[in-house]
Amino acid sequence: MAYELIELDRDGRVATLRLNRPKALNALNAEMMSEVARALAELEADDGIGCVILTGSDKAFAAGADIKEMVDDNYLDIYKTDRFEQNHCSIERFRKPIIAAVSGYALGGGCEIAMMCDFIIASNTAKFGQPEINLGVIPGIGGTQRLARAIGKAKAMDLCLTGRMMDAAEAEHSGLVARVVPVDDLMDTARGAANKIAGHSQPANMILKEVIDAGYELTLREGIRFERRMFQSLFATEDQKEGMNAFIEKRKPHFKHR
Ligand code: CAA
């Protein structure tokens, strides 16, 4: 089925999923997020895809959850539908590597879905924030938790309590984004990173992100034990033999499970 509010392009082993609701600055409504979830399910099942880029427009990655859609919700509406769980959180459940390429506004739910990705590459025009406090609410798709873990309590409190925006340079200094590049270079940089990732062993990529993510919920000792077990498990793959033999033979590896 075709998509109306997102664009999905495949180039080799990299898929780019572009949020495309420009008149609303890519505000995340139910229809768009159901398309995102559907596209991610399609990409998860596609062995030809090794990495995904989630992006928006130059002006807005996404300006947040759609305020107009939820303004009339009462407690029971929003509780019973658990509006954001199923579709928005498909990004955090996605098992292959996924990069957020952010230009312009990444506010509220927009910042939250960028943080659900494995890492963020930002253009110099990117602006991040959790301005929900201005609407009489608080972040509701993980913003308070992921932002505090990413940039520390002081800055997370500052951003969430004041509702101010943080520019790309501050976001990079704070550890929220991995790289900042000029706006015209954003997609080339994201594609370069995604192509490199997609060329690696897929099981190793998937296990790697699972292990790093698990570290947020485990003690150091448990996390290290999990890492060790997962490291050991990769010796059951042909890709481990190929990767190590290729190094010894001074050639490029040709991973079977890409
Ligand atoms: N929801 C719905 N519509 C939105 C929107 C949002 N989050 N953000 C922008 N829009 C719409 C505007 O209503 C406007 O539509 P109309 O032309 O029909 O009036 C259009 O997008 C353009 O927006 P602006 O005219 O406001 O553009 P601007 O350049 O003057 O300002 C902005 C840009 C600073 C990003 C401003 O639009 C803004 O503050 N947006 C809201 C940001 C926000 O509060 N996000 C948090 C949402 S709540 C949330 O995300 C909760 C959660 O965690 C689950």
UniProtKB/TrEMBL annotation:
InterPro entries named in the record: ClpP/crotonase-like_dom_sf, Enoyl-CoA_hyd/isom_CS, Enoyl-CoA_hydra/iso, Enoyl-CoA_hydra_C
Keywords: Lyase
CDD domains documented for this protein: crotonase-like (cd06558)
Protein's UniProt keywords contain Translocase: no
Pfam families in the cross-refs: ECH_1
Domain of life: Bacteria
NCBIfam families referenced in this protein's UniProt entry, alphabetically: PRK05862.1
UniProt family annotation: Belongs to the enoyl-CoA hydratase/isomerase family.
Name recorded for this polypeptide: Enoyl-CoA hydratase
Organism name: Algimonas ampicilliniresistens
